[in-house]
Design brief:
Blueprint lengths: L1 H28 L3 E5 L7 H9 L2 E7 L8 H9 L6 E4 L5 E3 L6 E4 L4 E5 L9 E5 L12 E4 L3 E9 L2 E8 L1 E4 L3 E4 L11 H12 L4 E4 L5 H8 L7 E6 L2 H5 L1 H7 L2 E5 H4 L8 H14 L4 E4 L14 H13 L3 E4 L1 H4 L4 H17 L42 E3 L2 H12 L7 E2 L2 H10 L14 E3 L10 E5 L5 E12 L2 H9 L7 H7 L4 E9 L14 H11 L4 E6 L10 H9 L3 E8 L6 H16 L8 E3 L2 E2 L6 H15 L3 E3 L12 H10 L6 E3 L24
Parallel strand pairs: 1-2, 1-17, 2-3, 3-13, 6-7, 13-14, 14-15, 15-16, 16-17, 18-21, 24-25, 24-28, 25-26, 25-27, 28-29
Antiparallel strand pairs: 4-7, 4-12, 5-11, 6-10, 8-9, 8-12, 9-10, 19-23, 20-23, 21-22, 22-23
């Protein structure tokens, strides 16, 4: 019999060790994890969807703030909206305040009040504690901390409960922690609500449980007895007993969670950092996953951005070796649940990108949760980079307004990863493969045509001016090569007809091309400078707003403006954070009055509340028509991506030129499936004819 018991115990130990190692491998083979608590601020379709998209790997239900009769409904609500696993976080062996009539009360020093044995809606004179019966365990002389700041001392016992005197006043909220400071109150590791919830959760497939206030190994055993054998138990270290018994608790658990909030009620706050480091060190030595919770982004409960101290704390917690971070009030009741998760994700990204953080290299691209720029980094040299650059004695080349716009966009980073005008091999790759030599998707030739008579030398730096001689950029010549204009326009536009405006524009320029890096000397003038944002600026604005999923909305015509509900529909369908509306404007022309109408139309739509507040940024994209719509739309999408947009509203309904090209555009985007910006079309894919989809994608000609 003794041998059978030993064998069963060994089998149980092997099974538990195997499960823990699986949990550990899962945690440490993945990126650092984010767990998120769901509550009133986040228990909705939009926030759950966005948190899942941000990589939250576990949704936590706090049983301290969830009624037993609501557990099944809450679990079902979450499971219907996401595959992210759910964790039931128990009330555990903790005393809390019960319901208060006004939600919170203020008590002053030397005031006396009663703690009632009965469960009642409390006020400043009398309140109840939870779990029921705990008041009977208090004795005269007990020093008790209630909520964050209030200290009381038990001075008398009555039939209805105990009388306490307030030694340090403050505000008390309902369901807030109550701690007897100088002795341990014997409590069951699980409340009756916990037991009911664990049974419900197990029946509904919940396989993660967080044990609050784990005091000893037997507390973990009590949870295992009520849950499925595959359930992963995360023991929360948040009391002195948990610290004292850490080895035996860790040995019985699948993971540890450091709850710094409740732990700081028994450990002096200045000691929390070193205690956290020691627990993480122990967990890593013991090969058990460890997570950290509480006050990660506390200021983001009410503010859209965290403090520098919070960001530093989160980063250093990752450096210490934590396997993940747990958001609590920030996502449960905060005003910015998605923003808080997004900020933690940004810090994790920074940590993972700079794991050799002693040798970090900084770029000019703002780090955020926005889509990466095309090619991974914004490049270009703006006027600020060229301050003090001397161009005396350099030869000049006068450009057209359209060519100056190309310079401006290259210099601002809008055409990233290009740093200048294309050489012959790059041009050939774009025309024949719709890709740069690096294999990055790219559809639009960017070349600087010159006459044969221009005798510039490779390695020479020249100044690029407007027709009046004003200096705007320099070009360091890397190549001067001849162009076969007929072949060029055939591959570019699919025709050599001079009546085609794109063909006519190319044939009207030189038969040679200059290649080389562009560096801006001064901003290129624009009538719409008040609206134009550089990619860096747009990304900073989106980051300040806490956006990650941004829909780019190009406006091509004055009548279009912001009419219709497609941008609003995209906001709703995609659960997007915001839209970037950008009229497409060009060099000064006789059409300027219509461009002004575009901006007035957009401004009117925003001013009259047609769009949700704080969900729209109005910009402008200065460019010019190139008369090759398939190439042009994808080129626009790339530029919107560089601005920080993750999605691009393809304007097939609004732009008459594109209405008959939707099938071709769908196939073009599909052929460039590594473009990393998602096109949004006006109709479901199945409603589009199948002709283009039947063609080999690799051979799709988008120049026609």
């Amino acid at each position: 019999m003794q041998s059978e018991l030993v064998t069963a115990r060994e089998d149980h130990l092997i099974q538990r060790t195997s499960k823990r190692l699986s949990f550990l491998a899962e945690a440490r083979s993945m990126k650092k994890e984010i767990w998120s608590t769901l509550g009133p601020s986040s228990m909705n379709d939009h926030v759950i969807t966005r948190l899942a998209e941000l990589g939250v790997s576990l949704f936590r239900i706090n049983l301290s703030h969830t009624r037993a009769e609501d557990v099944a409904q809450v679990v079902q609500f979450i499971q219907a909206r996401t595959d992210v696993p759910i964790c039931l976080d128990t009330e555990g062996a903790q005393v809390r305040t019960s319901i208060l009539q006004a939600g919170s009360v203020s008590v002053r020093e030397n005031h006396t009040m009663r703690l009632s044995r009965d469960q009642l809606a409390g006020d400043a004179n009398c309140m109840s504690l939870y779990p029921p019966g705990v008041v009977d365990l208090l004795v005269v002389g007990d020093l008790i901390r209630i909520d964050a700041d209030v200290l009381v001392r038990v001075v008398a016992r009555e039939a209805e409960g105990v009388v306490v005197r307030v030694l340090n006043g403050g505000t008390i909220g309902q369901s807030k922690a109550v701690t007897v400071l100088e002795r341990e109150i014997p409590l069951s590791p699980l409340t009756e609500k916990d037991r009911q919830a664990l049974v419900i959760g197990t029946e509904m497939g919940v396989r993660h449980v967080a044990l609050s206030f784990a005091n000893r190994a037997s507390d973990v055993d009590a949870v295992r007895a009520l849950t499925h054998e595959s359930t992963k138990i995360v023991s929360k270290i948040e009391c002195l007993n948990g610290l004292a018994n850490l080895p035996e608790i860790a040995d019985q658990s699948d993971a540890l969670l450091i709850d710094r909030g409740d732990l700081s009620r028994q450990v002096n706050i200045e000691r929390i950092p070193i205690v956290q480091k020691e627990i993480i060190r122990y967990a890593r030595d013991a090969d058990i996953p460890v997570y950290v919770a509480t006050n990660l982004m506390e200021s983001m409960i009410t503010a859209p951005t965290p403090t520098r101290a919070e960001v530093n704390d989160v980063f250093n917690t990752l450096v210490d070796g934590a396997d993940g971070l747990v958001l609590a009030a920030e996502t449960a009741v905060g005003d910015y649940p998605v923003g808080a998760a997004m900020m933690v994700r940004r810090v994790i990204n920074e940590y993972e990108q700079t794991s050799r953080w002693k040798r970090v290299r900084f770029s000019g691209t703002p780090l955020s949760s926005l889509v990466e720029p095309h090619g991974g980094m914004l490049v270009g040299r703006g006027p600020r980079d060229a301050s003090g650059v001397s161009v005396a004695g350099l030869r000049r080349l006068a450009l057209s307004p359209a060519e100056l716009l190309d310079c401006a966009q290259i210099g601002s980073g809008l055409c990233s990863p290009l740093t200048g005008f294309m050489g012959r091999d790059e041009l050939d790759s774009v025309l024949r493969r719709n890709r740069l030599l690096s294999d990055l998707p790219w559809t639009m030739p960017l070349i600087l045509q010159v006459d044969r008579s221009e005798q510039f030398s490779v390695g020479e730096k020249i100044v690029l001016t407007d027709q009046a001689g004003h200096e705007y950029a320099t070009l360091c010549v890397s190549d001067l090569y001849p162009l076969d204009l007929d072949e060029l326009v055939t591959n570019w536009f699919g025709t050599t007809l001079s009546s085609h405006p794109g063909v006519a524009a190319v044939l009207g320029r030189g038969d040679y091309a200059l290649a080389g890096e562009v560096e801006l000397l001064a901003p290129v003038p624009s009538a719409y400078e008040a609206y134009e944002l550089t990619p860096n600026q747009a990304r900073m604005v989106f980051g300040q707003k806490g956006w990650a999923k941004v829909v780019g909305v190009p406006i091509y015509s004055a009548p279009q403006g912001l009419k219709g509900d497609r941008p609003l529909q995209a906001l709703a369908d995609l659960q997007a954070d915001g839209v970037y509306v950008s009229p497409i404007v060009g060099p000064p022309s006789g059409n300027d009055v219509f461009v002004d109408l575009m901006f007035k139309s957009c401004q009117l739509a925003l001013a009259t509340g047609s769009y949700p507040r704080h969900k729209v940024v109005l910009g402008a994209l200065s460019t010019y028509r190139r008369h090759c719509p398939l190439r042009e739309v994808i080129f626009d999408a790339i530029r919107f991506k560089n601005l920080g947009c993750s999605h691009f509203l393809v304007p097939t309904n609004e732009n008459p030129e594109l209405q008959d090209l939707e099938a071709d555009l769908r196939s073009a985007f599909k052929a460039l499936d590594d473009l990393r910006i998602t096109p949004i079309f006006s109709a479901p894919a199945e409603s589009v004819t199948q002709e283009t989809e039947a063609a080999p994608e690799a051979e799709l000609a988008i120049g026609t």
